[in-house]
């Protein structure tokens, strides 16, 4: 799991991850080897090799320990399974592949290694990529990739090595999502968005579920939360479903690299039409469903027990996701759902009536308006829906929350975030903490402090207030404008100063216009009068 570190600066030349930031340098090096290969194809080549390195390192570390303790136990598979370590046959170990990295048969050797690992580990069957021998794949590039990846976590012990490889896998997922643009968003939710949900919901103990889990980022961050807050990983059980087979494979590898045991189901019909976990209820649900899906097959689900608040329109799946998720909540469960902003105010095809029914039933706990440009896949502004059961006396870490019935917390975070590149924004750690702390104080958590409305940022609104806004849930309608700081300048003086500044700017504009006109006439051009 992710551990806190204090090292700074660039990575050492051996790429062992001794300092923060090495993932970026490593990705640059790997990307140089890509050549003309599409990121969507190259992603599987690289991530498959990182996964192979991970399970081989974990196996070798456990093997070394067992040899020192009891040589006979070193060949007992149960000794590895007991530590959540995959059994790796000799021909699949990284040392064997590294020794043959420059051979023209390296692609075949990697495919054979993947098959051997799947054969020996039931949970990985059908998960690993096995097309490294294809003629179109440059074998020299493969050998160089193996050399590059061999330097990751070089010389580190078992836990440290696994942690570093997990970081690399997660970073590479995010970078490939960025390179793929819209397609990348299908398998990856930006880390800062996931962290907001996790910090707000605090999945500390119980069952955690994602009905459209992508590459598993919600689960990785949930486990990090438990570890960082002194909990035990065994206290949460993870469940998920994914309809894209390729994405499901990425998820399985991502969780395995992190050492996370989870029940992740796949079928190509999806959670609406083939709910693999239909009889289970969950304490926490975190989800980033695809926005505004119009072809979700809703016409075949007109009569369904999940539509407690109204039948969702066949042309948009947003309210089908909200109701599917609420249906799966345990009696004191909480859910965080990322949806397009339109879900907060749409009146089309009965969505307004469903939203009204949800509010009257007291299932909406909090609404968060997010800043734009957070996602790889879309520029559509997004929001967070926080749904809750047991709002009269919910439970967090054995502490009773206050009765929040008849109230909804609105948070407007649209002005938050910093640009991390030309097109994408991320929320900072401080901003994530501010959002989560506000929610925790509002729902009455122990040691969370007193909640207070902050103009322009947060507002605890009553159901009567929401009714007056026709059940529209856009936070900007409720939080109002931020208070303006008094700069100490008297109003009359400020008006005189601004008026003088305006006159100066107008005179300067006239001077520039005249200069431009003179230059054009000197060049033989005339300007219309």
Please render the helix and strand layout as text.
Layout: H1 22-32, H2 39-69, H3 77-81, H4 94-99, H5 106-120, H6 139-150, H7 158-180, H8 191-201, E1 206-210, H9 217-228, E2 236-242, H10 245-257, E3 262-266, H11 270-273, E4 282-287, H12 318-327, E5 329-340, H13 351-360, E6 364-369, E7 382-388, E8 395-396, E9 399-400, E10 407-412, E11 418-419, E12 425-426, H14 429-442, E13 458-462, H15 463-468, H16 476-479, H17 491-522
Parallel strand pairs: 1-2, 1-4, 2-3, 4-5, 6-10
Antiparallel strand pairs: 5-7, 6-7, 8-9, 10-13, 11-12
Helix pairs in contact: 1-7, 2-6, 2-7, 2-10, 8-9, 8-14
Summarize the structure.
With 529 residues, the chain is an alpha/beta fold.
